[in-house]
Design a protein that fits this description.
Elements: E1 2-6, E2 9-16, E3 26-35, E4 38-46, E5 52-59, E6 65-67, E7 72-73, E8 85-92, E9 95-102, E10 113-116, E11 123-131, E12 143-150, E13 159-161, E14 167-169
Antiparallel strand pairs: 1-11, 2-8, 2-12, 3-4, 3-11, 4-5, 5-6, 5-7, 8-9, 9-10, 13-14
């Protein structure tokens, strides 16, 4: 993760998953206001039936995920191997909004998911991918490109998360 101490921001990223999900879904997305593994997750779920959904989840310090929004079907989105998609999210105060689309298509102008949640007020941003339980694709690499964060928070520090859960300042 990177850019710690952020409060309000807008983010965009392009993501490529090189496989069609086999037997179980694959998730990829953004996390925002993350502190010690707790924060918000903007998740695209790529389903085995070639549909995709977008949702916002909150993760507690104990590691438990709770939905902030329902999983919402992404219109005009067909899952395909190496078919890049984009996510844009904004977070301002308690309001969290997100949309997702196939990168080859024009960006939608409306938010697909929109919620109010006061749980976390600041933290880091970053990306994630998960091969869900039961997925039989084997090991693959998800590509994250063109990651943009627009925030007016200074200073912007770069952190990394070690395998044992420690936060380490990179710069």
């Amino acid at each position: 993760y990177l850019l710690s101490g952020l409060t309000d921001m807008s983010m965009k990223i392009d993501i490529t998953v090189p496989v069609n999900p086999a037997t179980a879904s694959v998730d990829a997305g953004l996390f925002v206001r993350l502190t010690a593994l707790a924060g918000y997750f903007i998740r695209v779920r790529l389903n085995t039936d070639t549909t995709a959904t977008l949702s916002i989840q909150v993760r507690t310090a104990a590691g438990v995920l709770f939905p902030v929004t329902a999983e919402t079907l992404i219109p005009n989105f067909v899952v395909g191997a190496s078919n890049p998609f984009s996510i844009r999210a904004t977070i301002s105060g308690q309001r969290i909004r997100a949309r997702a689309w196939l990168t080859a298509n024009a960006e939608p102008q409306t938010w697909l998911v929109d919620a109010l949640n006061p749980t976390y007020t600041s933290g880091s941003v970053g990306v994630f991918s998960i091969r869900n339980t039961g997925n039989t694709n084997g090991v693959f690499t998800v590509s994250f490109d063109n990651f943009e964060v627009d925030a007016s928070v200074e200073p912007l520090n770069l952190w990394r998360h070690t395998p044992d859960g420690e936060e380490v300042l990179v710069r």
